Task: structure prediction
Amino acid sequence: MSSRRLSNLLVLLLTCNYSQRLSAFVQPSINPNFKKYHAGQIRRYVVGENNQQPKQQQQPQKYRVSEFQRHNNELNQKIRNCKDLEELLDLGRQNELNRFCISFYWAKVAGFVYDESECSKLRTNPELLQPIVKLTLDSSDKLYHPRSLAIMAHAVAKISSRTRKSIIQSKEVWQVLEHNIIDVAENENLGSRNCANILWAFAKMNQRNPDHLFGIMENQVLSNMNEFNSL
Result:
């Protein structure tokens, strides 16, 4: 049942992709009411209204970054600056991580597994991911951001696929991801890219009995039909 439902979802994705490309092909060229002016700027004038100046772009409101936000930004920057898996794992062992950087950490690990030498470290010693796995499970009741859930699912699937080995406590991690994704998807729109990443991850790992998840994601794909293009 789940494989048939997954096939239907893939057909929907391909259909949306084709329709978007076709609409882009037949779309008319740039609106003649737009003219090019100095320094490559484009200004729009309304037809029939003489000498009407374009509306000035509103300046974004300035806000003060809290100490908490500053700490998270600095932590994400530390993760971004890690040059190899060992440096990243050391950061995790220092207990600096929090639930707001979990998805960023998983994504960084997934990026390193494209290097065969880094990938072999996880293949021979999967316990290296214990800190981030523990933090993920401990924060299971707080992980409800659609993009973060999609990033984590995609990253875990990529790590397992590249190492050809499941991560430690894989069953528990996938249960948390599935449960939270379903809860979020029942109450809000996940967005086209998040839908694509989630479907790819669960299909890649061939998770057992994801009928409820695929049913929810089917509705999400239908509601985001107009957004799918070249994902």
Remarks:
- The longest helix spans residues 2-26.
- DSSP finds ten helices and two strands in the chain.
- Residues 18-51 have pLDDT under 50 and may be disordered.
- Strands lie at 34-36, 42-44.
